[in-house]
């Protein structure tokens, strides 16, 4: 059984993305990156991405992570903060520590496509 099925499938993913996107856009340190983003479209991409990342059906048809985030100047600190919001969202939805760790550890490598080297603190 995939983690997607284990946690409740699309219903839980939809709730997670709704809560997660609110947390991220309400975070004063992250909000500037989302100021001019079509949030409905972003949520749809996030649902598709998380579904595939958790072993559900791969419905993602958007641009690559690298091209979607190119030129945004996303720092490793901002990326880690987004993962932190996702982890707390998943905990709030009742996922276990092991499940949340599996999700976050699975998404951490995506940072290589999102974080821009020039913005990485040395």
Write the layout of secondary structure elements.
Layout: H1 3-7, H2 9-26, H3 31-34, H4 39-53, H5 65-69, H6 76-92, H7 97-107, H8 111-114
Helix pairs in contact: 2-4, 2-6, 6-7
Q: Write down the secondary-structure element order.
A: HHHHHHHH
Number of helices: 8
CATH topology: Globin-like
How much strand content do the residues show?
A: under 5%
General form: globular
| Distance, first to last CA | 41 Å
Tell me the major beta sheet.
none
CATH secondary-structure class: Mainly Alpha
Global Rg: 14 Å
Q: How would you name the oligomeric state of the polypeptide chains in this document?
A: single chain
**Residue windows where pLDDT falls under 50 for at least 5 positions:** none
The secondary structure category is mainly alpha
CATH architecture: Orthogonal Bundle
Overall strand count: 0
CATH superfamily: Globins
The residue-averaged pLDDT reads 88
Give a nutshell description of this structure.
This protein is mainly alpha-helical and 122 residues long. It contains 8 helices and no strands.
Describe this entry's structure for a reader:
The structure is a single chain. This protein has 122 residues and is mainly α. The protein has a single domain (3-119), classed as Globin-like (Orthogonal Bundle), CATH 1.10.490.10. 65% of the residues lie in helices and 0% in strands. It is built from eight helices and no strands. The protein has helices at residues 3-7, 9-26, 31-34, 39-53, 65-69, 76-92, 97-107, 111-114. Helix 2 (9-26) packs across helix 6 (76-92) and helix 6 runs antiparallel to helix 7 (97-107). The N and C termini lie far apart (41 Å).
